[in-house]
Design goal:
Helices cover 37% and strands 21% of the residues. With 180 residues, the chain is an alpha+beta fold. The protein has 3 domains: 1-44; 50-149, Umud Fragment, subunit A (Ribbon); 151-180, no CATH class. A hairpin with a 6-residue loop joins strand 4 (94-103) and strand 5 (110-115). Helix 2 (152-159) packs across helix 3 (161-177). The two termini are 30 Å apart. It is a single-pass type II membrane protein. It holds the Pfam family Peptidase_S24. Keywords: Hydrolase, Membrane, Protease, Signal-anchor, Transmembrane, Transmembrane helix.
């Protein structure tokens, strides 16, 4: 084997090592993000510790695109609290204020009625057919903090999937083109 072939083999070996290093680095970033998300779920007691406000129903308190931080504990839910809940048969969680609390004296279970601050009527029209109250299992968490407008990135990528693919493509190109 000549000197040229040895040099080419060394270059190929180096390229393979760089590619493997980049793939491992990407895997570490993804794994770190998942670990952080799971840790936040454990710390906050919420299946989704962070949500984006998707509509104007909570204005002026929260704007579309605000990010809410959620926490869930065993404390009773009270009127006036802002909660995030899921409705049976719908995928997108809703951010609204508790306007009424109904406690069953026999079981001690608490049911709640919600309403968006910017809405004229309560949310019974949003609930599953025949449902008048939300039960504890519908509630994902209570709002404990927020970041204004940061969620617009998520809204833009959801409304225009092509932008999401462009961003992923650019990030992929940067990863491949980066030199360690």
């Amino acid at each position: 084997m000549g000197r040229f072939e040895e040099t080419m083999d060394s270059i190929k070996s180096l390229q393979i090592r760089q590619s493997l290093t980049q793939a491992i680095s990407l895997g570490m970033v993804v794994a770190s993000a998942l670990i952080i998300w799971k840790a936040l779920m454990c710390i906050t007691g919420s299946e989704s510790p962070v949500v984006v406000v998707l509509s104007e129903s909570m204005e002026p308190g929260f704007q579309r695109g605000d990010i809410l931080f959620l926490h869930m504990n065993k404390d009773p839910i009270r009127a006036g609290e802002i909660i995030v809940f899921n409705v049976d048969g719908k995928d997108i969680p809703i951010v609204h204020r508790v306007i009424k609390v109904h406690e069953c004296r026999k079981t001690g279970e608490v049911d709640v009625l919600t309403k968006g601050d910017n809405n004229d009527k309560n949310d019974r029209i949003l609930y599953a057919r025949g449902q008048l109250w939300l039960q504890r299992h519908h509630i994902m968490g209570r709002a404990v903090g927020f970041l204004p407008y940061v969620g617009w990135v998520t809204i833009i990528m959801t409304d225009n999937p092509i932008i999401k693919y462009i961003i992923i493509g650019v990030l992929g190109l940067l990863l491949v083109a980066s030199k360690d």
